[in-house]
Design brief:
By secondary structure, the protein is mainly beta. It is 4% helix and 24% strand. Strand 25 and strand 26 form a beta hairpin.
Length: 571
C-alpha cells in the first residue's frame, strides 16, 4: 500500500537536486501546507537622548611668508638631429639581415580537409615589420628538380607573434581554426599539394636557401618527411634555420599517426602532446560483439557493434597507430577491414565500432563510432580480429581474435546470432599471436538478448545468473528533473541481493493518469551492484549527466520515464 507519509514529494527540482545511488533524506524538505504562525511584533523601545558636548574650536596657526625665488632663464633649445629618411611609406620594414632567421615550424595536412592545409613560418626578428625583400616560399614535388609553385612574401606584415601563415583560402582557414589569421593565401599549399612535397624558403636577391622542410634529391623516396593525413612540427630545441633537411629536427605525423583539424595549432610553436608512433604499440582487445534479436521487422538490417577496449590506462585518450580491425565473414579468406590508425580511444578506454543502425539506436548513439558500412556485414558465425599492419596495409601480426580465421562458426559454440558474445572480465591481455580461446568468452544467443540488454562502451560480464528468491525490493527515488528529460530515473534498493541477479518475473510498472494497463520494464536477470542500489534510466545520457552508468536503460515512454511526476510506480 502506498503511504504518502513515507515519502518526501519535492516539486520543481533539477538535476543538481537528484542523488542516484545515495539514499538519504533531502537536504530541504517540501514546503508545508499549514500556514506559519506569526509572532506578534513588539513595539520598539525608544533610545534615550543624551545631551551633546560642544567641541572646542582651535585658532589656526599662521604660516610664515617666504620671499619668492626667481626662476632661472632657460638656455636656448638644442635642435634635434634630422632623422634618416624611411625607405618607403607605411609600416617599418624588415630587411634581409633580419629575414635570415626565418624558420619553417609546421606544415599541416589534416586528414579531414584538404583546403585548410598551411605552412607556418616563424621570424621573431621581424615582429610588427613589413617584409621589404623578395623572399619566396616554393613547393617541390617528389621527383621534381625545382619548385612548381611559389609565393612571394614581399609586402607581408609580420604580426606581433612573429608567425607568418601561408594557407590556401584565408576565410576558410579563419573559420576552421577559430579565428586564427592567415597572412598569405596561395596554391603553394592546398588541395594540389601532397604529403611528400618539399617546402623551401629562399632569397631571390642572392638565390640562397634560408630554410627547408624535406629533401630536394630527385631519387629520394621521402618516406621520412611524408605527412599524408598528418603534419610536421619542428622540435622547439631547433634554434636556427638550415638549408639542409634534417629529419631529426622534426616530429613527422603521417599515415600511421593520422592528425585531424582538431590536432593543428597554427600560430603556436609547441611540442605535440602526442609524439609520432605513440599509438603504434597500443594494446587493444575485443570485449563485446553484438548481433541482437529483433522483435520487429526482422528483415531490416540489425544494429551491430564491435566493442574494443584498451586495458592500459596510460594509453586512454590516445590515437591508435598501425592497427586494422578485420572481419572474416563465415569461412572467407577475403576479409573486410577498417583502418583504426588515428581513431581515438575515449576517456574510459573504449572504442565501439557501430553500423548505421546501431549508431541510430537512441540508447547507443553516445557511445558509437560510425565509419561508413563497417561492420554492417557481421553475422554471428563470423571471425573478428585486430591485426598490426605495415604502411601498405600488409598484415604483420595478429593482436586479438574472436573466432577461428578461415572457419565458419555458424551453428557452433562461437555463434552469437540473435545475441552477443562478451569477454569474461579478467582476461584483459591478448593471447599470444592473437589466438582465440573459447573459455574466455560467454555467448548469449538465440532470442535471449535484445537491444536493451547490450552495453556499448562498458565491459559488463553478467556471468552465470545467480539469484535468490528471497529478494525484497524497495522504491527509494523517482526522478523527473526540471532541466533534462534524459535525467529521469527510478531507483530501487534491495538489502539481501546486492552482487546477485534479479530473480525471474520481476519488473517495474508505471501507471500514468487515467491509465488502466501500466507500462512495464523487466529487470529480471539484470545484475544488482554490491551496494544493493539498482537504477533504471531512460537514456544513455544518464552517464554524462550523473557521472556513472545506470543499470538498465529502458528508453523513453518506459516504466522509468516518470514524466510529469504524476505517476504511480510499483516494483
Amino acid at each position: 500500500l502506498f503511504r504518502s507519509s513515507e515519502w518526501w514529494i519535492l516539486p520543481t527540482t533539477t538535476i543538481s537536486d537528484m542523488d542516484p545511488r545515495y539514499w538519504d533524506e533531502p537536504f530541504v524538505a517540501p514546503p508545508t501546507t499549514t500556514p506559519p504562525t506569526h509572532r506578534p511584533t513588539p513595539a520598539p523601545t525608544p533610545r534615550p537622548t543624551l545631551p551633546s558636548t560642544p567641541r572646542p574650536t582651535n585658532a589656526p596657526t599662521p604660516r610664515p611668508t617666504l620671499p619668492p625665488t626667481p626662476r632661472p632663464t632657460p638656455a636656448a633649445p638644442t635642435p634635434a638631429p634630422t632623422p634618416a629618411p624611411t625607405p618607403r611609406p607605411g609600416n617599418p620594414v624588415c630587411l634581409l639581415s633580419n629575414l635570415n632567421t626565418m624558420m619553417i615550424t609546421e606544415v599541416a595536412h589534416p586528414q579531414d580537409a584538404n583546403n585548410v592545409r598551411y605552412i607556418e613560418i616563424y621570424n621573431p626578428s621581424c615582429r610588427d615589420l613589413t617584409i621589404d625583400e623578395d623572399i619566396t616560399v616554393g613547393r617541390i614535388p617528389l621527383g621534381s628538380v625545382g619548385a612548381v609553385e611559389t609565393v612571394n612574401l614581399r609586402g607581408v606584415q609580420v604580426p606581433s607573434d612573429g608567425f607568418i601563415i601561408i594557407c590556401f583560402h584565408q576565410i576558410i582557414f579563419q573559420n576552421t581554426y577559430n579565428g586564427s589569421m592567415c597572412d598569405k593565401a596561395s596554391g603553394v599549399i592546398g588541395p594540389s599539394s601532397v604529403g611528400t612535397d618539399t617546402y623551401v624558403i629562399y632569397s631571390e636577391a642572392d638565390d640562397r636557401v634560408i630554410d627547408i622542410y624535406g629533401s630536394r634529391q630527385t631519387t629520394d623516396t621521402r618516406d621520412d618527411q611524408d605527412i599524408t593525413n598528418g603534419r610536421a612540427v619542428r622540435k622547439t630545441s631547433t634554434d636556427s634555420p638550415s638549408s639542409l633537411f634534417r629529419s631529426s629536427e622534426w616530429f613527422v605525423f603521417g599515415t600511421q599517426d593520422v592528425e585531424m583539424i582538431s590536432d593543428m595549432d597554427p600560430r603556436e610553436w609547441v611540442t605535440p602532446q602526442e609524439v609520432p608512433g605513440s599509438g603504434s604499440d597500443i594494446v587493444l582487445i575485443i570485449t563485446e560483439l553484438v548481433h541482437p534479436f529483433m522483435t520487429t521487422d526482422t528483415n531490416s538490417p540489425k544494429p551491430i557493434f564491435i566493442e574494443l577496449y584498451c586495458p592500459n590506462r596510460d594509453d586512454w585518450n590516445t590515437k591508435i597507430g598501425n592497427l586494422h580491425l578485420i572481419l572474416y565473414s563465415g569461412g572467407s579468406t577475403y576479409p573486410d577491414r577498417l583502418d583504426l590508425s588515428g581513431k581515438s580511444i575515449n576517456s574510459r578506454g573504449f572504442l565501439t565500432i557501430c553500423n548505421l543502425q546501431a549508431y541510430n539506436e537512441p540508447l547507443w548513439k553516445s557511445e558509437c563510432a560510425y565509419y561508413d558500412k563497417f561492420p554492417s556485414g557481421v553475422n554471428g558465425g563470423d571471425t573478428v580480429t585486430i591485426a598490426k599492419v605495415d604502411k601498405s596495409g600488409n598484415i604483420l601480426s595478429f593482436v586479438d581474435t574472436y573466432g577461428v580465421r578461415g572457419n565458419d562458426g555458424t551453428g557452433g559454440t562461437d555463434d552469437f546470432t540473435n545475441g552477443r558474445a562478451v569477454r569474461i572480465r579478467g582476461y584483459d591481455t591478448p593471447n599470444a599471436n592473437g589466438v582465440f580461446v573459447r573459455s574466455q568468452w560467454r555467448v548469449y544467443r538465440y532470442n535471449n538478448h535484445k537491444v536493451v540488454n547490450c552495453n556499448p562502451g562498458v565491459w559488463i560480464d553478467e556471468g552465470v545468473p545467480l539469484f535468490s528468491l528471497d529478494c525484497t525490493f524497495l522504491l527509494t527515488e523517482l526522478a523527473d528533473p526540471q532541466d533534462s528529460p534524459n535525467g529521469r530515473f527510478v531507483e530501487i534498493y534491495t538489502k539481501e541481493c546486492g552482487g546477485q541477479h534479479v530473480p525471474p518475473g520481476w519488473e517495474i510498472a508505471t501507471w500514468r493518469p487515467y491509465q488502466v494497463v501500466p507500462v512495464t520494464t523487466s529487470i529480471a536477470g539484470r545484475y544488482i551492484p554490491e551496494d544493493g542500489i539498482f537504477v533504471v534510466c531512460v537514456s544513455a545520457a544518464f552517464t554524462w549527466i550523473y557521472g556513472f552508468q545506470c543499470d538498465v536503460i529502458s528508453g523513453s515512454n518506459s516504466a522509468a520515464d516518470v514524466a510529469g511526476g504524476v505517476v504511480t510506480v510499483a516494483v
